[in-house]
Structure formats: structure tokens, C-alpha cells
Write a structure and sequence with these properties.
Layout (H helix, E strand, L loop, with lengths): L11 H32 L1 H9 L4 H11 L5 E5 L4 E3 L2 E3 L4 E5 H4 L34 H18 L3 E3 L5 E2 L8 E3 L2 E3 L1
Antiparallel strand pairs: 1-4, 2-3, 5-8, 6-7
Helix pairs in contact: 1-5, 3-5
Length: 185
């Protein structure tokens, strides 16, 4: 996206493409959070039961869902300057692939990283990115997911997976389900 150099504003085409980008990015990632979130809650019925008895734990569960199975798995970046990470030299303008899903399972950052833990309170995941690339709609995704979980728990006494092997969308960057068959009572 380039600013119109004369006026310091976006052109009509730039504004339209930015709106389309924001809509698509927000929709797909929210769908990913809600679909994989519901799948992971159903795959961990003990956590779902804790939420059923105590809705105040839902925000903590959402943060753990974001860490445990990030909707955005990978992002591309271009290095802005020369830097050394570990013992690897990265030069300015190098193209990088950042694996957010893997970083959110880093055992140097998270205790028991491959477990879904509702009691995890120190949860500095990077599911929404960081810095200048931090997600504009993080608050909306959290609210939508909280409302979805509350509605399901309030409406249905029992929710369970029909198939424990879900059908994943064929997208390396954004993790979503194509379908999630459930049985409700």
C-alpha cells in the first residue's frame, strides 16, 4: 500500500484494496479461531466442562486457544536491517517465513507447550502478530469467540465431536476447518 505522495492520502484503488484485505483477513482468521477453538474445546471435554460451570474462565480459555492452535500459522516478512538471530545471519531485505504456530509452542517460553492448559495465566502468545503488524481486529476476534462459546454452553447441555479427525482446510497460512460435525443435546 503506497500513500499518494502529493496529498498524503490513499487513492481510491488503494483504499478499496485495503478494505478488501482487512475484511478477508478478519473473516478468515475469526473463522479459524472459532472453528479450531470449538474443535479443541470439544477435544478437551474437561476444559469445556470447567467453562460450563464458570463462564469467567472463557477469556483465559480463548488466550490458550490462540496459543495452542493459532488461526494464523505462518506469515511472511522482509528483514528491515541486518540482524543475527541465534547464530544465523539475516541480511536486510531477506525474505523470512515466521511460524507463529511453532513460536506459540516454544518450550523456552511456555511450560508444557503441547498441552491445552486452562490454568495457564502467563500466556504471551503471538497469535495476533506483533509491533507494526499486530492484528487490528484482535479485540473483535476475542469478543466473537467469547459470544460463540457462551451461546453454545447456554443453549446445549451436551456438545460432542462426531468425528475426532476433523477435515482441515488446505491452507498453510490460516488454519481453519472445512467442517466440524458435532452432536448436541
Amino acid at each position: 500500500m503506497l500513500l499518494n505522495k502529493q496529498e498524503g492520502t490513499l487513492s481510491d484503488d488503494e483504499l478499496i484494496s485495503t478494505c478488501i484485505l482487512l475484511f478477508i483477513a478478519g473473516e478468515e482468521t475469526s473463522i479459524g479461531l472459532m472453528s479450531t477453538g470449538l474443535y479443541n474445546l470439544l477435544a478437551h471435554p474437561e476444559v469445556l466442562e470447567q467453562l460450563r460451570t464458570n463462564h469467567s474462565k472463557i477469556p483465559t480459555a480463548i488466550e490458550e486457544l490462540l496459543r495452542y492452535d493459532s488461526p494464523v500459522q505462518i506469515v511472511g516478512r522482509i528483514a528491515g536491517k541486518d540482524v543475527v538471530i541465534g547464530n544465523k545471519q539475516i541480511k536486510a531485505n531477506d525474505t523470512l517465513t515466521i511460524c507463529l504456530g511453532s513460536a506459540n509452542r516454544d518450550s523456552e517460553i511456555f511450560d508444557r507447550p503441547d498441552e491445552f492448559l486452562l490454568e495457564r495465566t502467563e500466556n504471551k502468545h503471538i497469535a495476533f502478530g506483533g509491533g507494526a503488524h499486530y492484528c487490528l481486529g484482535d479485540w473483535l476476534a476475542r469478543i466473537q469467540t467469547q459470544l460463540m462459546i457462551e451461546a453454545l454452553l447456554n443453549r446445549f447441555k451436551k456438545i460432542e465431536l462426531v468425528d475426532t479427525k476433523p477435515d482441515w482446510n488446505n491452507n498453510l497460512a490460516i488454519r481453519t476447518l472445512t467442517k466440524l460435525p458435532v452432536k448436541v443435546d
